[in-house]
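Why does residue order matter? Because the sequence determines the fold. Keep that principle in mind as you read this record.
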Amino acid sequence: MKGLLGRKVGMTQVFDAEGSRIPVTVVEVAGNVVVKKKTAQGKDGYNAVKIGFTGCARQEKSGMIRYRGANSPEAGVFLKLGIDPPRRHVREFRITAAELDDIEVGEELAIEKLFSVGDRVDVTGTSKGHGYTGVIKRHNYSRPKMTHGTHEFFRHGGSIGASAYPARVFKGKAMAGQHGNTRATVQNLRVVEVIPEDGVVLIKGAIPGHNDGIVCISQAVKRRRSLA
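Structure:
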């Protein structure tokens, strides 16, 4: 499975050859570097590649060098491989043996070699957090009328019981609680444009998370079939 880490820049719009407006999300993917290769013949027992993203800031004080966002053992792994600065975010992707032979540790992955215009991708990130919210905002409930006997319960969830039978609350009942700030994936998004010189990729539609958040772009697992 092909994949990269990226940073969500924000949303904009582009126009296709027919003049139709396409909403896209701009994702910066420059700086993905191969940290480790795992093989089925090795101790790991499967083929995969570890990718690092976002360089740590170098700090020097009193003759000592440290990297913000990585402790000494973590930074030592990267420096031993000749990767400077160390990367803050590391993810693992399963790939085939043939794909594993085409990459080398320390190599910086190019977006144009992995994805092209028209490819379908899945994007995973951490959704925006909304704190503790009620059922109207969290589950799109509707409120009752604000007249004719309704008192102090305009936005409440109401009764949650199930009468004498089954005399319990069903599991998964939609109630108030933590809204957002969870791992979320949007599937089958289309790559609209790849701009290698700027290190960005344009993906149609919205993706999880806030601007400047880290996202994972991978090959779609449920590819949409064409009607033709």
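The mean pLDDT is 89.
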